[in-house]
Design brief:
Shape of chain B: rod-shaped
Number of domains of chain A: 1
Largest sheet of chain A: 2 strands, antiparallel
Number of helices of chain A: 8
Oligomer: heterodimer
Strand content of chain A: under 5%
Helix content of chain B: over 70%
Order of helices and strands of chain B: HHHEHEEEH
Largest interface: A-B, 47 and 33 residues
Number of strands of chain B: 4
Structural class of chain B: alpha+beta
Strand order of the largest sheet of chain A: 1-2
Structural class of chain A: mainly alpha
Strand order of the largest sheet of chain B: 2-1-3-4
Distance between the termini of chain A: 62 Å
Radius of gyration of chain A: 20 Å
Distance between the termini of chain B: 167 Å
Number of helices of chain B: 5
Order of helices and strands of chain A: EEHHHHHHHH
Shape of chain A: globular
Radius of gyration of chain B: 64 Å
């Protein structure tokens, strides 16, 4: 039984290979990039604008609002990373309505890649905000004893991110595949709809968790600074 | 193995490329458009506020002018009302004065009319009374009346006392002319003799007495000597009555006494 689109390999040359995950990811990337380009080609700056522009503005401003609500004070700075995370996962899930398509987020390789990006981005944003020493100090808070636990926490939450997304997306595709073989009518459609909902929820959870981690990294020292100032 | 590390690397790269693409084609243009629109809206709002402020200022100015206009109008109206009031008062005073003048003139006319009427009535009454009296006395002028008149005259002479009597006696005694007794008609011889006797006895005189007739006496008798005259005549009573009537009429025609007919009190004039 095939668990991941990684297993569908179209071309391989030693270590390098072109599987369904990478192909569908390119498809999603193409869709997002071309779609954005088409809509933003003729952007209106006055009060009259197209429906597509309205849609994209709503999406972008909603993402920014969510980032801000998590606690990041300058959402534009994190919009590129967090917004793209959300849009990629959400689009990958929405495209499951296309027959023959398999979501690249149903591959553990993709989710690990995304989790690794978060794993790297969090300290990067933290260091940018607090400096290297400031960020590293947060690992020995409140005492040095907590250092290994903090490191374990970083790794485990990254793993959890990857596995959570993979498990949800893979299970959705699996359930639909199994149901298609058992009851080919009606019920798979309902499950597909449920899968769409699950995909959207997962996209939200993934990007919000990433935002929370970044927020935690950038604001780790803030309360103590405030208390020392007081 | 679920994790294919080449795929992981490729997906990481793919994701980073996607981040760049999204920044390039989605976030930047969209955020730029939103910023531009917000600027536009802010500008328009500022313009709207400025316009509103101008409108408010103009409205205040207009309101101020309106209030000023109202105040001026009220002042003019008040002034006009005051002038009208003064003019009205003046006209009323004039009319009242004219009415008073007219009323006074009318009252004066009425008073004149009443006075004239009273005088006419008075004259007429006097004439009538005199005419009646004359007629009555003429009709009654007989020996008995003249006898009574003479008796009364002699008793009047006798009633004169004191200084007056002395003066009269002295005048009668001193005169060279005879004492004249005037009557309305000729006296009979007996009456003349008794009269002469009575006079001589009263004044103790010796001189002659002459008897004359005088029609203007109207049933009267008078004794005339130098500078003195003693007379009794019904004309005296008539004169007294005439003056009484005239006084009464004057009282009636005085202002405030009323010009209407006198109330009937049963006395008559």
């Amino acid at each position: 039984m095939r668990l991941s689109p990684d297993e569908i390999i179209f071309w391989q040359h030693g270590f390098i290979k072109l599987n369904a995950t990478i192909l569908f990811t390119w498809g999603v990337m193409l869709l997002l990039a071309v779609g954005s380009k088409l809509v933003t080609r003729k952007l209106s700056t006055d009060l009259n604008r197209t429906r597509w522009q309205n849609l994209l503005e709503i999406v972008v401003t909603a993402i920014m609002k969510q980032i801000e609500e998590v606690g990041l004070r300058n959402p534009k700075k994190y919009l590129g990373f967090l917004g793209t995370l959300f849009l990629f996962v959400a689009t990958a899930a929405l495209c499951t309505v296309i027959p023959g398509y398999e979501p690249p987020t149903g591959s553990l390789s993709t989710t690990v890649a995304l989790a690794l990006c978060v794993f790297v981005a969090v300290p990067l944003f933290g260091i940018e905000d607090q400096g290297v020493s400031g960020y590293l100090t947060s690992y020995v808070e409140p005492t040095v004893v907590m250092l290994p636990f903090n490191i374990i926490s970083e790794i485990s939450r990254t793993l959890a991110l990857a596995v959570r997304l993979f498990g949800n997306m893979m299970s959705g595709a699996m359930i639909i595949g199994i149901l298609l073989s058992i009851t080919p009518f009606i019920f798979p459609i309902v499950m597909t709809l449920l899968g769409l909902l699950t995909g959207m929820v997962q996209a939200y959870i993934f990007s919000i968790l990433a935002a929370v981690y970044i927020a935690a990294a950038t604001r780790a020292r803030k309360p103590r600074e405030q208390s020392s100032e007081a | 193995m679920l994790i294919d590390w080449f795929t992981v690397i490729a997906q990481t790269l793919n994701f980073l490329i996607l981040v760049w693409l999204m920044k390039r084609f989605l976030y930047k243009p969209i955020l730029h458009a939103i910023d531009q629109r917000e600027k536009l809206i802010a500008t328009e709002l500022a313009d709207a506020y400025a316009t509103k402020s101008d409108a408010q200022k103009e409205r205040d100015e207009f309101q101020h002018k309106n209030e000023e206009f109202d105040r001026q109008r009220a002042a003019l109206l008040n002034k006009a009302m005051d002038e009208a009031q003064v003019e009205r008062q003046r006209l009323l005073d004039e009319a009242r004065q004219a009415a008073d003048d007219l009323s006074a003139e009318r009252q004066e006319n009425l008073r004149n009319d009443a006075r004239n009427l009273n005088q006419a009535i008075s004259r007429r009454t006097q004439q009538e009374v005199f005419a009646i009296s004359r007629k009555v006395l003429m009709d009654l002028a007989g020996s008995s009346l003249e006898e009574h008149m003479l008796d009364h005259f002699i008793s009047t002479l006798k009633a004169i006392k004191g200084e007056e009597k002395e003066k009269l006696t002295a005048a009668i005694k001193a005169t060279q002319h005879p004492v004249v007794i005037r009557t309305t008609s000729n006296l009979s011889a007996s009456l003349s003799a008794s009269t002469e006797h009575a006079i001589k006895e009263t004044f103790g005189m010796e001189s002659q007495i002459r008897f004359e007739t005088a029609s203007e006496l109207i049933s009267g008798i008078e004794l005339v000597t130098d500078g003195h005259k003693v007379a009794w005549s019904i004309a005296d009573y008539l004169k007294s009555m005439e003056s009484g009537i005239a006084e009464l009429l004057d009282d009636k025609t005085k202002p405030g006494a009323g010009v209407g007919p006198a109330p009937e009190d049963g006395h008559g004039a």
